[in-house]
Every structure is written in C-alpha cells, then in structure tokens.
Amino acid sequence: MNELNSISETDAGVRPSPGAASSGVAAPGNGRAAVAASSRGLSKRRAILFRLAAVLVGIIPLILLEAGLRFFDVGRPHFSDSLAGFNRNLSLFERQGPIYRTARARQPFFSPQQFPVQKPPARFRIFCFGGSTVYGHPYQSETAFPKWLELELAASVPRRTFEAINCGGISYASYRLAPIVKEVLQYQPDLIVVATGENEFLEDRTYLPIKSRSRLAAWLEDNAYSLRVFNLARNFFRGLQHKPAHGDLGEKGSSTLSREVQPRLDARSGYASYHRDDSWHDRVAAQFEESMRGMVKLCQSASVPIILVKLGANLRDCPPFKSEHRPGLSPEEEAEWQQAFDAGAALTALTSYRQAESIDGEYALLPYRMARLLDRLGQKSEALQYYVKAKDLDVCPLRMPSRHEQILDRISLETKTPLVDAASLLASHSADRIPGNDWYLDHVHPTIGGHQKIAQSIVSQLRELNLVPAAIAWPEAKRRETYARQLEKLGPRYLADGRRRVEWLENWARRERWLDETLPSDAAGFLRLGFRRLDFDDEDGAWKAFGEALKRNAAAIQQIKEHAKELLSEGRPESAASLLEKAGKL
C-alpha cells in the first residue's frame, strides 16, 4: 500500500523519487512539467512579440508622418508655446550648416540674427538680451544699442572683430529670457548683456504649475511639444473649438502661463484685467529677482562676463496707464476726493490737489498732474518725485517700477556684477534730469540717439573692466560718419515706418488714458513733442509743435538750434541742416 502511494505521488509530480534525484535521471512527471513550462514560456514570448509588433505597426505610420512633416517643414513647434520660457527643446537659434540662425518660428518676435558655428580666434562675441527695447522697437535691430555697440567696438579696437547678437524678444520678460541665456552659453560668448525689466507685468503670472512639474512630467511635455504630429493635431483641434484652450490667457486668465507670449492688454478684457494687487506685485518682484540672479549665476559658473543694464522710462510725457483708488475709500471720501481733484484741474491749483492727496494719494493720475503743475511752477526736484510716484503707482505697470530698479542695484552689488545705469544716463541728458519725449519715443523705448548713448556707456564699462583691449581714439567726426553710413543703409522709409509702429503701440497702450493728459501745456512740452516728431522724420509735424513752443516762449529758438547739434552727432546731418536753416529764418 505504501508502495502504491509512493508511485501515485511520484506520477502526480508531487515530489521526485529519491533514487531519480541521486542518479541524475529525470522522473517521467518532471519531464512533462518541463515541457509544459517550456511551452508556456514560448507562448508568453510569442504574446509579448505579438504585442510589440502590434505597437510597432501602430507607431510606424506616426514615425513616417512625423518624418514627412519635418521634411516639408509643417507643424513646426511655435516659440510662443506655453513652455517656451521653460522648454529646452525650443531653442532661439538653430544650426544650418556652418551657421547658427534665429529659428524661423521665433522671428516674428526676435530679430533675424546669424553667426558662425565655429568662432574665429580674433572674434569677440556678445549676446544682448532684453525685450522690445533691445529689439529696437519701434524700429528694427539695426538702430538698437547692440548694433551701435558693435560699431563702437569695431572702430575703437581695430585689431579684433566684434559681433553683437540681438536677442531682444518683443514682450519677453526676464523669466522667458533666462533659459535662452543658458542656451547661448554653448555658443562661445565673450560677453552677455542683459537689459530687461519692462515686461514683467505683461503676462498673467500664474505659471507656477509649469515650473513645479515633476522631472517625468517635464520630460514628457517637453518632448511632446517638440513633435510635429502633436503640434499639428493640437492646433487643428484648437481651430475647431474657436476659443482659448486650456492654458491660454482668456478673459479670466488660467492656471498656467499663456500658450503664447500674450500680453494681458491683447485680451478682450484689456485694462479691465489690471487691478491693484500688492501680493501679485510681490510675487512678480520675487520672480524678477530670481530670474536675474539665475542669469548672473549661469554666466559666472560658465566664466562668461555679464553686464546688467538698468533701463529708464519716459516720466515727463507719459501719464500712468491706469489709476485706482486706495482700498477702503468710502463713497463719501471718494466724492470729496473727486471734488478736490476736479478743482485742481480747473484752477491749476496745487492746494486743491494736495487736499485730494490727503484723502487718497494712491490714485496714480493725481501725482502725475501734481508733477506737471510743479514742473511748470519751476519746482523741478519735487516734480521729479511726483513723476516717479505716478509711475510706481500705475495699476498697469508698463514701465519698470523703482522696486525693480532697486533689485538690480542689489544684485549688482551682492554678486559684483557690472551695471550700466541707462536710466540715469538718459536723465542726465534731459532738461532738469526729468526724461520725456526728448529721449523716449513712447513710454519706454529710447530714441536712436538714446540707443547710441547706451552703447557708448557699455563700451566705457568694458574698458574699465579690461574686457576689451586698449582702445584707440575715435574722433567725433569719424563717429558721426559711421553713424550716418549706418542710417543711410536703412532707406528713406525706415524712420517713418517706426512712426507707424509707435502709433499702433500708443493705440494699444492708451486704452484708458485721457488724451488731454498727453498733450503739451507749455513751451518746453511742445519742444519735446517737436523733437520726438523729428526722430520719426516728420518735419512738418515737428514745426507745428515748435511753432506752439515759440508762441509761448520766443527763447525756445535757441533750444531748437541746440537740438540740431544733437541730430548731427547722431549721424543725421541733413535733418540737422534743415532744422538750422528753418530756425535761422525765424
């Protein structure tokens, strides 16, 4: 009985026979188990291979489609994607043989630039970063300070070749520039120049979900956005929807940075989307400082010199874009404030304005009106304080706030990074050190002469830092000739085209500004308006303004003649001669 049980258990494969184990001969039950296991393994492998083949069959058409889209250059990833500021796959420059060129997808907002992949030994390569000021708006890059910087260095250091590559992106803020700075460090730069801070409030700053992505999510999203198939499909479905997709900046904003570099003023809500929000300003200031420090750290870690530029703004002839009363103002207080405010405007009475200020001094238009009145009364120092206050209280801050200027000063001091103070530079050339239409074409964009002076200041800084060899003297006459040749290359319509662009910009950026606030009210104001119109080659418009200035103050003719000298130094001898001729007849 025990023997039968033993045989039965062995046949059933419950356990091997002790004899079989010791002799190395497999029992019949074990053989069948091995065959079954082998069969199961083969079936499993076949199933896996079948699944892989099925996946491959499904992927091959997509691979072929992606290859075809790339070959025909369809579905190119847009630079202005929601991840454009953070996606390493969306480069500003792309290689084309021996040349790096600005990616075509980015050229609507970046000036087309190019430079050789292999930098010649004697070449000094500079990358200049910023927003529309660096771009050269309302003109093109050919009159922005990077171009004048290149010309200044080439003339004063003839033993070397200099190239200044313009990386100014229209509407680009510091947080979108930081990844591009990281990109260009692989292109053998000798110097990085960063002039930014004007666009920090343009976009709805709710992009933290993008920055806080996990590494896996970031990798998946970055690579998905680099696929032509993905972008083509996404754009197709968005076209069908005819409405902002998730992540776009719609009427009420969204949980991420907008899909495009889309200023809030471009949305239907426009200025209505801007309100007094101190906590938002705190976050923007913190992010600005983080971005600027990040760029400085990147350059210092790579042993590449970096220079910061503090940009200025039009204080005298640019009222705040939007004003709001302070929180907690009662209806009775607002009515009292309005009465005093209106009385100040009707009587040009500083006393009435100060009464309104005692009720609510945070309404940005009030300090601006007070500044203009103080300006006309000759109280220039106090006027400047109120002009700055009006800028800093602007609910729609399209000019760099003083707080951000202080951040740049602090970063420069703490990191020992050179800082070119363009704001003070242009103010020093302005009457009473209050910049207006004489050096700015609109709220922030300098004149061509202003760009030239910024370039000269950067060159001086480079010499002080010994970043360029000892310079030879460049006579002023030679500088004027070089400037004139550069302007002659641009054609007769170049300045007029800039005028059309700035007119569009003013329509875009003046939706809640009263026209009366922008009109000159004294001889000095009409002079500045005339100088601005001359910058756009509008002589007829300029002389209309000059005529109004001379009606109010005949001595203004001397300032008109002085401005002719400035035009001559900027490389515009014909404009200077015409101005002197007409002034002489008067």
Main features:
54% helix, alpha/beta, 3-stranded antiparallel sheet, 8 strands, 5-stranded parallel sheet, Serine Threonine Protein Phosphatase 5, Tetratricopeptide repeat
Main pleated sheet: 5 strands, parallel
Shape: globular
H/I helix tally:
23
Which strand-content bin applies to the residues?
A: 5-15%
Through-space gap between termini: 139 Å
Counted beta strands? 8
* Poorly predicted residue ranges: 1-26, 78-86, 241-260
Q: Give the neighbour order of strands across the main sheet.
A: 5-4-6-7-8
Helical residues, percent: 40-55%
SSE class: alpha/beta
Assembly status: single chain
Overall pLDDT confidence: 83
* Rg, Å, rounded: 33 Å
Topology summary:
Layout (H helix, E strand, L loop, with lengths): L1 H10 L6 H6 L4 H44 L21 E4 L2 E4 L11 E3 L6 E8 L1 H4 L9 H12 L4 E8 L5 H11 L6 E5 L12 H4 L3 H11 L2 H14 L36 H24 L4 E5 L20 H17 L2 H10 L5 H12 L3 H14 L8 H14 L3 E3 H7 L19 H17 L11 H13 L5 H16 L13 H13 L3 H14 L3 H14 L3 H13 L1
Provide a descriptive summary of the structure in words.
This protein has 586 residues and is α/β, with parallel strands linked by helices. Among the domains are: 2-71; 331-393, Serine Threonine Protein Phosphatase 5, Tetratricopeptide repeat. 54% of the residues lie in helices and 7% in strands. It contains 23 helices and 8 strands. Helix 10 packs parallel to helix 15, helix 11 packs antiparallel against helix 12 (350-359) and helix 22 runs antiparallel to helix 23 (573-585). It is globular, with a radius of gyration of 33 Å. The N and C termini lie far apart (139 Å).
